[in-house]
Amino acid sequence: IDREELCGRSLECSIHLEVIVERPLQIFHVEVEVKDINDNPPVFPGTQKNLFMAESRPLDSLFPLEGASDADIGANAVLTYRLSPNEYFSLEKPSDDERIKRLGLVLRKPLDREEAPEIFLVLTATDGGKPELTGTVQLLITVLDANDNAPTFDRTLYTVKLPENVPNGTLVIKLNASDLDEGSNGDIIYSFSTDILPNVKSKFHIDPVTGEIMLKGYIDFEESKSYEIFVEGIDKGQLPLSGHCTVMVEVEDTNDNVPIMEFKSLSLPIREDAPLGTVIALISVSDLDSGVNGQVTCTLSPHVPFKLVSTFKNYYSLVLDSTLDRESVSHYAVVVTARDRGSPSLSATAKVSVEVADVNDNAPAFAQP
Ligand SMILES: *[C@@H]1O[C@H](CO)[C@@H](O)[C@H](O)[C@H]1NC(C)=O
Ligand SMILES: *[C@@H]1O[C@H](CO)[C@@H](O)[C@H](O)[C@H]1NC(C)=O
């Protein structure tokens, strides 16, 4: 006898029989009461339930669940629910007051997709029979992303050393920020900050997708020794979040400037009886490069009766070093070379034409006595 098939959920279940006895004819009415035994477990609508929850949901949010049903009656159909142990949810159970039949999950700890993108729970229903029967449903909770993580660069300051005159388009640095969010909430667009200086903007270009900073044109150490680039990474979330870093580009000097030589004053022509040490010219030299690339020494072409005397840093005097005689040499072509100490070194030359002025130092002489 299956009470559930005979009577469904009605509490009373009996089978009415008429027993007929002949001779003498009598009718007995027999009422067979069918008693329930706990032969039906609680049954959920499915074996697995998928739930989708945004990670931004506030605490105490309620997510309704469908309960189980039990074909038995009475205590055999009184269900109690139990949730597998977890830190995120507690179970809101139907109250004894049968009018409120709410079964649901209550959020007890903020969801964080970056920490737990999926949560598995098991909901168990137990009936009140003796022995009791149980039914379970698996709850698979998928946590939907919210844009709650800002892009972060692994450093706040990057330092790059770059020699001047490197080719146009040279890669300076490839930045890489990370954003723990997924999808567009984690897609980062790189750009220069709005408060970046115009001279930086004119020299560098940033690829918004790859984060590569490239040189635009050429950098010149003599123009600027460093550039400070402020970079922003902004995600594509609906309420975008941003991260920042600074790229310090230090320009390294190369020996790209030739020494410059300047003759300050010339006292020419020089008399052939001028005393040794007479100053003929003042020479100043300069070089725009720095360090050894800008250290200049001057030399003089050999075999001239002059010498260079260094008077002060980068200043030289061209002075008379031995006696002159116009009647033997009346003109000297003097070549001064200024050479820096870079490697390879650069040099400049200047030519000075020194005329020897005649002095009356020869008496008339007859060819024959
Ligand atoms: C950026 O960094 C992340 C984590 O540090 C790494 O997984 C990823 O491959 C990097 N991307 C590039 C393009 O370097
Ligand atoms: C550098 O290269 C870019 C792209 O090829 C070009 O547009 C720009 O004119 C170049 N700049 C110089 C100074 O050559």
TrEMBL record:
Q: What is its main location?
A: membrane
Membrane protein topology class: Single-pass type I membrane protein
UniProt key word Calcium: yes
| Pfam families referenced in this protein's UniProt entry, alphabetically | Cadherin
**Where does the record place it?**
Cell membrane
TM ranges:
none
Annotated GO MF terms: calcium ion binding
**For this UniProt entry, what's an example GO CC term?**
plasma membrane
Coiled coil feature spans: none
The answer to whether UniProt assigns keyword Cell membrane to this entry is yes
Q: In this protein, which residues make up the domain named Cadherin?
A: 68-153, 154-261, 262-366
Q: Which GO terms describe its biological process?
A: homophilic cell adhesion via plasma membrane adhesion molecules
The record's SMART domains line, in alphabetical order, gives: CA
Keyword entries, A-Z: Calcium, Cell adhesion, Cell membrane, Glycoprotein, Membrane, Repeat, Signal, Transmembrane, Transmembrane helix
Q: What is this protein called?
A: Protocadherin alpha-4-like
